[in-house]
């Protein structure tokens, strides 16, 4: 099995929480990005003490209450399915704080982490505050919800974005990378992809590869899988009949998204 492809774990806890993914404790190829997905039954609670990491709490589906002990945000979340294709609510919590998530309804929550030592204010990122973009053309079209973009100074390291790609289209395409700390030409950002498909029996293909092919993996990614991208190009192909959703988490030594296209495929961008 690929070291980059992670399948759901579904670890049942005693407080109405199921851990679907936890890529923060076990060894991963990522240094700057940590990621969890949890399912909560109504009334279920999840609490954490953050050390030198910041966290973006994304209400993927359902409604939740979130508190850091000082501020409380009630009944947040904006959809029952990610494929409603509308933005959702999120909460940013800085390092050296704690937080508690409590489910108002059945909910799925993503927890996105990155190292941080500069404490910032806790912030509710409302669905209405997400910038929505439409990128690409032809068979390279996708809809983007910017939760924590690099032009927003609400976080120290984290960049968080949702992407919807329709049937028969390619995403994160033409193949691009951001694995060199060489600004202003390119930034170093690790990345994780949390994938869902509609209908859920669907799949996508994701390739992660470097110029020298020292890393070159092509994965069949199914509903609920996570792909970790420590470096390299990382395009996603969506088969006919299915819609793709993924939540991206990026982080690195500098909070700037500056990518470099694969020169072999640059012509795709330059065509009329």
From TrEMBL:
<dbReference type="InterPro" id="IPR014710">
    <property type="entry name" value="RmlC-like_jellyroll"/>
</dbReference>
<dbReference type="InterPro" id="IPR023770">
    <property type="entry name" value="IolB_Bacilli"/>
</dbReference>
<comment type="similarity">
    <text>Belongs to the isomerase IolB family.</text>
</comment>
<keyword id="KW-0413">Isomerase</keyword>
<dbReference type="InterPro" id="IPR021120">
    <property type="entry name" value="KduI/IolB_isomerase"/>
</dbReference>
<comment type="pathway">
    <text>Polyol metabolism; myo-inositol degradation into acetyl-CoA; acetyl-CoA from myo-inositol: step 4/7.</text>
</comment>
<dbReference type="InterPro" id="IPR024203">
    <property type="entry name" value="Deoxy-glucuronate_isom_IolB"/>
</dbReference>
<dbReference type="Pfam" id="PF04962">
    <property type="entry name" value="KduI"/>
</dbReference>
<comment type="function">
    <text>Involved in the isomerization of 5-deoxy-glucuronate (5DG) to 5-dehydro-2-deoxy-D-gluconate (DKG or 2-deoxy-5-keto-D-gluconate).</text>
</comment>
<protein>
    <recommendedName>
        <fullName>5-deoxy-glucuronate isomerase</fullName>
        <ecNumber>5.3.1.30</ecNumber>
    </recommendedName>
</protein>
<dbReference type="GO" id="GO:0102482">
    <property type="term" value="F:5-deoxy-D-glucuronate isomerase activity"/>
</dbReference>
<dbReference type="InterPro" id="IPR011051">
    <property type="entry name" value="RmlC_Cupin_sf"/>
</dbReference>
